[in-house]
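Chapter summary example.
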Amino acid sequence: MSQTPAHPTPTEISLHQKSRVLTIGFSDGRRFDLPCEYLRVFSKAAEVRAMQQPVVGKEEVNIERIEPQGQYALRLVFDDGHDTGIYSWETLYNLGINQEKNWQGYLQQLQDMGYTRQTPEAERGKRTVKLLYFAYLVQKLRKDHEEVELPEAVTDVQGLLEWLRKKKYEKGYLLADDAVRVTVNRQFCEPFTKLHDGDEVGIVPNSPTPPPPPR
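The structure predicted for these 215 residues follows.
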């Protein structure tokens, strides 16, 4: 009789380098979107655990490659040269389960030591994106495309849709999360996908008929 694993095992591992996020789905149905910065500062490597203060300055760190370690772990190679962190399935699962608590604790440590996290360079300053509308959105919004300058607070696809819903007023319901899919530079993307200056964003309805307006 086979033994049941003590911890869930990965069923999906996807690296989103544009957004600097590693997505991991587990056999128990849980799915976590783990920022590369989070994984880097919580590395289990000996040299990181030996540090007296938290790791800083990794706001723009990315994962260059992922190397399987047998059937139990991954070695994540970061673009800042850090390549000694081995992340077991248990470690990755626990990082996902405790992400909010861990991150808030990390931010408190930074505040206590007087360090201010920096906005990644690609997300600073003026950012203009081209929006492409498809299907019934063309008729309802009376345009098939437009260029918009993003507010500083809008950094990803989820934030863009929230902003557009307010900007479109009575037509905002057409852009509900469950009513549309979004592409960035012609690839379907996740809500956390980062938006940069010059990106082309397509908004595609999920249905051939528009949703009814709210009452």
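To summarize the output: The mean pLDDT is 93.
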